[in-house]
Structures are given as C-alpha cells and as structure tokens.
Design a protein that fits this description.
Length: 463
C-alpha cells in the first residue's frame, strides 16, 4: 500500500483513495488522533477480501494517484470511463457473459451463451446445442450423421438408398414398377403384373383368360383350349350352326337341338310361296294335314299366335290361316301354296320341300289321374324329363296346356318332382326349380301330369 504525504498530526492534507463498500471514493479526509493510516489499511484489507470472494484474484492491489492496478485492469475515479479487458481471463467464467465476446475464446465454455457468438469457436463444444443453427453450413459434413434425417435430401447421395428410386434401376427390381419402362429390362421381373397389358403379346399365353373377350378375335387362337367349358349352355341354340365343326365335341350336349321345324307364319296377305322364299319350297300336303281344330291349335301355338276361339274350317285354298281377330281356320278340303289370303289374314305354311318336317301334333301328353309320366308315355315314346323341366313360368305353362287342349284356371309354381300337373279345379302348377322325375307319383290322387313323351329328341315346345 502506497500512501500520499500527509501533513502533521491533526492537520488537513490530500489523503489516499479508499474503497468503501462496492464503490471507489477519492477526496479529502481528516486525521485527528493519528489513527487515519491504520483505518485506511484496515479498509483496504476488507476490500481485498471481498474482491477475492467475487473471483477477481488474490494479487496485490495498489492505489496510486487515484488509480488501482489489478492484473491490468484500469479504472478512473470520479466519473471516469470503464474499459474492456485487454486479454481474456485464464479461466472461463462460470456463467455466460451478457454480450458475446468480439473474438472466440481458446476453449469452449461449460455452458452455451445466451446469444450466439459472431464467430464460431475454434473447437466444437462438448455438448451440442439443443437447437439447430439458424442457417445451414456452407459445406456438408464429411461423415454422415448417426441418425438420418426424417426427409430425404434434394440430391441423391453417393451410395444408393435401401429403397428403389422412382425411375427403374439398371437391374430389375423384385416387384414391377408402377408404369412400364420405355425399354424392356434385360431380365424379366420376379413377379409378373397382376393385369395383362393393353395390347396382346406377340405369342399367345399358355393358358387362356378366365373370361372371354366381348368380341371374338379376328383369327382363331393357335391352340384350342385344353378342356371344354365347365358347364354346357342352359338351353340349346334355336338354330344349328351354319357349318359343322371340323371335329366332334368330346361330350354331347345335355339337350341336343331337335330337327328343324318347317312351319312358317306368313305376312298378312302373302301366299305361302312368298312366305317360303329363302327356305325350302311350300308343301301343299303339309298344309292340308291341318284338318281339324286340335291340329290347328297345335300349329298356332307353335307359331306363337294362339287361336282366340275354337278353330273352324275354311272352304278356300288359303288355309290354314288366322285372321285379324285371332280366329283360326283349318283346311276343309284342299290348300294351294300360291293362293293369297284376304287382307289382314296370315297363312300357316309348311316350307319343307318334298320331305317337310311340319308336325301336326306335339309329344306333350296329359296323363291320367295319379299316373306317372312313365305310364302316360307308354306307346308314345319314352319320357323326357329334361324337356318337362323347361316349364318354368306362367307363359310356358299356358302354352303346354294349350298343346294338350286344356285351359288353365290359374297358373302358379310350387315345389315337387311330379310337376307340372293339372289339379282337379283346373289350376296348372309348375316347378319352382326342382327337376322333374318321370317315375314320380303325383301328390294328389286327382292330379294329372303333363308329360313329354318324345324320347331323346322330342317335339315338346314350351312357347
């Protein structure tokens, strides 16, 4: 401690600067009893101890001319200005400074500062900050991060990712791409696509498609299918095919088509010669076979124009015929193919040439009460259960009843293997789906069965 010269004991003089509390004071003081110097030293010791507790070092302190020296710190008294340290401290402070330093420290602080420094530190901190920097670094890091980012980078990495890119790779992927590539891959994919391509391939597939196309192909397939269709068609075609197949089918159809029926319904006012154009020629003998009301009803029903009342004979050469009132007229004596009927009248014409197939009776038989169809068909041909099972609605029931000369009081469906039947009150009952059995007994002792007795190729129309 250096003190200024003092005057004699008990006199006034310029005293030494003193630190009292937390402030530096400079000015006049008095000593009256010679104890001034002791008091000053005591005050300085107390101030040094307090500064040591505040971490400001334990070096000596000098007060000279109102200035205090301590490790290079300078401070002017009486309203003087403070200056920053000329060099950083040997050890970092335990708390961050209020403002960042102008230059980086030689070592990182134990805790990050409240605000970022203007320059990054020379070495990274031991613990990374909890928040990312406001702007990314100019260059990426040399090594990848421990955990990848949640989103992919805008540019691909040097090494490919574990998942394929949206564009196909040089080698095919294990699964097909969403859209086909412009050029095929050198090797086929492990799994083919679930749907066929829009255009057919050059070579046909080894197996046909499950469903046929809506239109047939212009050319037949190179190889036919290995097996026929699983189920035959429900009903045979109305007409046979124009040309027969080159080879017979492996199995016959369940219900083969019967021989062609040569009955034709002419247009109003046309002769039978005109009605038969494009078919076989008109056969007068076939026309003249329609010589009674029962036969007239059979032919009219077959041609889909049931007679409105009981048929009567006609003496003209234009029979058989039906007029505009649905009155049917059968042949009484003779018929001529070239004769034209009255306006509005339509002729029934047998267009079978020299060997026509113009039946005047069907193979439908009405059995006796409680008789099976096997019994009813004795002498008329064997029972055909498939043909009987075709009676599946009201219109077909009415048509079959007309063929055997019966008028139904009502028509309805039910379950049973003996159907269709005629009940005692005139009701006609047909099957609701169960197949007919020729040997089945009737449910009631008064029921009469409708039976088709034409054998394997019967004439049992249902319209």
């Amino acid at each position: 401690i250096e003190k200024s010269p003092m005057g004699p004991k008990g006199t006034k003089g310029r005293g030494t600067s003193m630190m009292t509390g937390n402030s530096m004071m400079s000015g006049q003081h008095e000593t009256s009893d010679g104890t001034g110097e002791a008091m000053m030293i005591k005050s300085m010791v107390a101030m040094k101890m307090k500064l040591a507790a505040m971490g400001m070092g334990s070096g000596s302190m000098a007060m000279k001319g109102g200035k205090m020296g301590n490790g290079g710190m300078r401070m002017r008294t009486k309203g003087g200005t403070k200056k920053t340290t000329e060099r950083p401290t040997d050890k970092p402070s335990s708390f961050p400074s209020a403002m960042p330093s102008s230059g980086p420290s030689s070592q990182p602080t134990s805790q990050p500062s409240g605000e970022p420094s203007s320059f990054p530190s020379a070495l990274p901190s031991l613990i990374p900050s909890s928040f990312p920097s406001s702007e990314p670094s100019d260059m990426p890091t040399k090594s990848p991060t421990t955990s990848p980012t949640t989103s992919p980078t805008t540019s691909p990495t040097t090494s490919p990712t574990t998942s394929p890119t949206t564009s196909p790779t040089t080698s095919p992927t294990t699964s097909p791409t969403t859209s086909p590539t412009t050029s095929p891959t050198t090797s086929p994919t492990t799994s083919p696509t679930t749907s066929p391509t829009t255009s057919p391939t050059t070579s046909p597939t080894t197996s046909p498609t499950t469903s046929p196309t809506t239109s047939p192909t212009t050319s037949p397939t190179t190889s036919p299918t290995t097996s026929p269709t699983t189920s035959p068609t429900t009903s045979p075609t109305t007409s046979p095919t124009t040309s027969p197949t080159t080879s017979p089918t492996s199995s016959p159809t369940n219900n083969p088509t019967g021989p062609t029926i040569n009955w034709v319904l002419g247009a109003p006012g046309d002769s039978c010669d005109t009605a038969c154009v494009g078919l076989e020629s008109c056969n007068n003998s076939g026309n003249e076979a329609v010589s009674g009301p029962d036969v007239m009803n059979v032919v009219a029903n077959f041609l889909g124009v049931p007679c409105g009342s009981t048929p009567v004979g006609t003496s003209g050469l234009d029979g058989p015929q039906i007029d505009s009132t649905s009155q049917c007229n059968f042949v009484s004596s003779a018929s001529d193919c070239s004769t034209t009927p009255l306006p509005g009248t339509r002729r029934f014409c047998c267009c079978g040439g020299s060997t026509p197939n113009c039946p005047t009776a069907t193979d439908w038989v009405l059995g006796a009460a409680a008789a099976t169809c096997d019994t009813a068909c004795i002498g008329s041909g064997s029972c055909n259960a498939d043909a009987i099972s075709e009676v599946t609605d009201d219109d077909r029931m009415i048509a079959v009843a007309n063929y055997v000369g019966v008028t139904c009081s009502r028509e309805f469906s039910a379950g049973g293997f003996d159907l269709p039947v005629l009940e005692s009150d005139g009701g006609c009952v047909y099957s609701d789906g169960a197949p007919t059995r020729c040997a089945e007994d009737t449910l009631s002792s008064t029921d009469r069965r409708f039976c088709c007795c034409g054998g394997p190729t019967p004439f049992c129309p249902v319209t």
